[in-house]
Amino acid sequence: MPNFPYILYSDGDFVSFSVAEATHDFVRLVSGYTRDVTELHPFVPGLPSPRVLEDGTQIIASMAIQVTVFPNSGFTICINFRHVVADGKSFHHFMKFWASVCRSKGELASLEGSLAMPLHNRDIIEDPKGLKLSFLEEIWNSSPESVESIGLVRDVPDDIMRRTFVLSRDHVEKLKKLVSTKCKSYGLGTLHVSTFVVTCSLIWVCKTISEDTRIGTSLTNNDESYILAFMADCRNRPEYSIPSTYFGNCLGCGNAVVKRSKLVGENGILEAAIAIGNEVRNLHCEAYKGVERLMSNFTEFATLGKHMVIIAGSQKLDVYETDFGIGKPKMSEVVHVDNAGSISLSDCRDREGGIEVGLALERIQMNKFISIFEEHLTEIALHD
Question: Among residues 77, 106, 254, 270, which is most buried (max CB within 10 A)?
């Protein structure tokens, strides 16, 4: 049985920090338009290779940073980090703290009260079901490559395109109203209708409908179950007493399951919203119910070949509030959605209350997705 993994820092340890120069078109880079996924890959730093100690302990680097300068235009900051160290909330707290230090220009006293220090104490996490040991055994029995490469950018198939889509506050509010109205008309009672729920529902439906355009694939079986998986922050919940500043992973997982026939049907968005909304409500009531099946569920979904989408990020992370002293970022991208079957969510830079959605698809499917997405936005805009 292996020892429990832990975060190690020794005197002399450092984070890999690279500075590069690029000749790419910076304006195009931050435009959000459709582009080949590989355009972003040169800006992603590689993590140092793992090393093995004499006792067999494997040491894996947790993070690497690369700053790429575009002369007379701007620069990018790209962080490659392992999710085993921290979740999105912890990562963005780190980014905001780093930005605050830069913005203070050495006047560290001015930071007091602006951002709380992170809490690294793992002892506050209770484990009454002994899941720590169970999860460790499952990870140990998986392939080393899969553990080492989690969250990393790897080779992707040819002809994969990525794009950032924007939903305005008006689109979101009208979509909420549309879903709520349909719920009442069908006598379905009260549904948890939030920005997250309706955004994921719309994107999930558009992606599912667009799948039949993929080259070399036949029409999908309408009886197949489609899954949308997402994470929920479990900090600041009274039953766990975990503060918002806890640095690590503190997440519950929801899996919304809907038959394909319902997703592509007339009420696809409603069906998706019901499934996602119910999962959100369940997580709110009991975040860790069934968590002992978390890893086995993911393994089962992959083994059975079920169609699964994973939501990365959240509009609540306030990505565009990260200011190094030169204003808001022009664009924020989650690069690993290129090949992980994921969809990224973030707040919107220029539209208060809006939301940005990033995803990658084969070129022909992306073109179809754009058409379907725009059709839905037109219909939503007409809804009073």
Answer: 270
